[in-house]
Amino acid sequence: MSAAHDPLPPLAGLTPARLAWTLATDGTRAPHSMQFDDVYFSAQDGRAETEHVFIDGNRLGERFAAWTAARPFVIGETGFGTGLNMLCAWARFDAQAPRAARLHLVSVERHPLSRDDLAQALAAWPDLAERAARLVAQWPEPVAGVHRLWLDARVTLDLHFGEAAERLALLEGKVDAWFLDGFAPAKNPEMWQPALFRAVAERSRPGATFATFTCAGVVKRGLADAGFAWRKAPGHGRKREMLVGEIPTPPADTRREGTPWFTPPAPRPVRQVAVIGAGIAGASAAAALARRGIAVTLIDRFHRADLGTTHLQGALYVKLAVDTNRQSRTYLAGLLHSRRWLAQLDPEQGLWQPSGVLQLALSEKEQARQARFLANHPLPESVVRGLDAEAASAAAGVRVEGPALDYPNAGWVRPMELCAQLAATPGVRFQRGEVVALHESQAGWALEMADGERIEADQVVIAAASEAAGFAQTESLPLQPVRGQLSQLKVPAGAPQLGRVVCAGGYVPPAADGVLNVGATFAPGETDMAEREREHAANLAELERGLPDFVAGLRAAGTDLSPERLTARVGVRAASPDKSPYCGPVPDAAAWRADYAALAKDATRVPDTPGRHHQGLWISAAHGSRGLASAPLCAELLASMICDEPLPLEQPLVDHLHPGRRVIRDLIRGKLDD
Fold first, then answer.
1. What is 16-247's CATH number, 3.40.50.880, 3.40.50.300, 3.40.50.150, 3.40.50.720?
2. Which of 117, 314, 364, 651 fits 113 for a cystine, CB–CB 3.0-4.6 Å?
3. Where do runs of H (alpha helix) occur along 309-359?
4. pLDDT by residue (tens digit) across 10-45?
């Protein structure tokens, strides 16, 4: 799809909310929007108004108490504001829902508050302080897109930053109850448009309810035209009336009429999932599923916890395209997601460091590329910024020769230790072994092991890197192995220290535990795991090309840089032909070739047949060298698909990652036998 017809909005930072503060009747300070000249909540009793309009208006207390579904109850909201509505819903859920129930909150915000303003606005309610602190601690950068927050073990919040109708049109998920909040229609007419009501209706489950404080004619007409039945109800305080209602039969989702192959499979009951592969893709998927109460068997030929100290450091960073594309959108979303995820998983930072990442521009061509990127992407400087040579040198801690892109919130991770911790998540059982075949069974799937054992599971996630395409069901997915060698050297006391992970042709993080990691080589199609002295030499040459002063300082401090004295860490990554991961349900490639054969003659002849998949079989693979930025988000994406939850990416990006995309591409290009 061309950029001109792409439904995704520009990849950019958002204009933060501009606030004034008024004194409430209880002595607290209430926020007032300067953009819309309206209040976020009533200065008389904002908490009571929220409870009356949105919580009681949707009958949430009784619905929470009766909730027994395996999937979470989903609330959608058209204006997050201070988060008061969602915190009140969370508190009511905790008070009345069964212990096994889960809650999923989805909220849109065009002008996010700053973290400090958010904390101040919510300080008015001490009984919400603990919940507010969890929200504030994870508050995302003001970047357009989806930001997933884990409020506690049972409650998830997806913040969709951007214009309400636009964001809800991109939402992949269904809602049980709506908070139609936002500034009053007279103050914010751009939001209360027919497109908003259509999007709300299309993202609703049958029987979904709504409540809103306003009785404006434009709202009543918009709701009725979209299929909602509305009625007036007593308002709160000085407001005499409000609206409540429901939608008996939501309209069909027509977004995939031109791409029916991406239609997701219907949800299936799930109790037990087998995950094949215990690297970052598999271990994060296993942990994501276990957090949802699913029993997971994690299978791999070796256990990372048995490896001892490796001193390995992986870079958590991305390289984004000059012109916005879906791959860049996905990787940036993944970078921001991994940053929040790591902070929740390891707040003591024993497994990772948010050191920041500096991407050097060592040639005029790269300098021009970075300048064009910055011009095209007005992102917050807390996400990415351009630095001249002097500022880049200050950030790196050593002199660099030219400008650079700086990602202040990126950093480095200990990947082996991270995978071991994920594998130890309660509910995950690790089993050493090799899966040689997958067979559909009465239980769902049977995994045939190399030693003859047979493991049964309801569903299966394949996350076996370059070996992920080694099953009959996945052989249609092209995967290229890529050998990489990392060089490790001990640095003496007094050696120069880096202040950032520095990337150019390779990467080097700040030394940890007296060991410097330098790498990594890139050998497509190779799987040999033997150490190569010439690749040590190549890594050192690349380091000196990017950081000559740093290397001179290492030598001056007595560091032995002889290739034969270095230690190697060799791995085999996997890449797809288009360099984006595969994440989603595994397509039945033979059925796709039959159902969509007409595409080979005319790509505009699109049948209306939904894509057929191997039911209950999923994949997360082809993460290449950016797996720390993509695999955790893909893990959350798969877990949400399996558990029938709203997804943490926009619908076009979900389709971008679909494993069947290559089958369609090859059909259109006439490669029927690939």
1. 3.40.50.150
2. 117
3. 326-345
4. 899 999 999 998 876 666 678 888 888 887 776 667
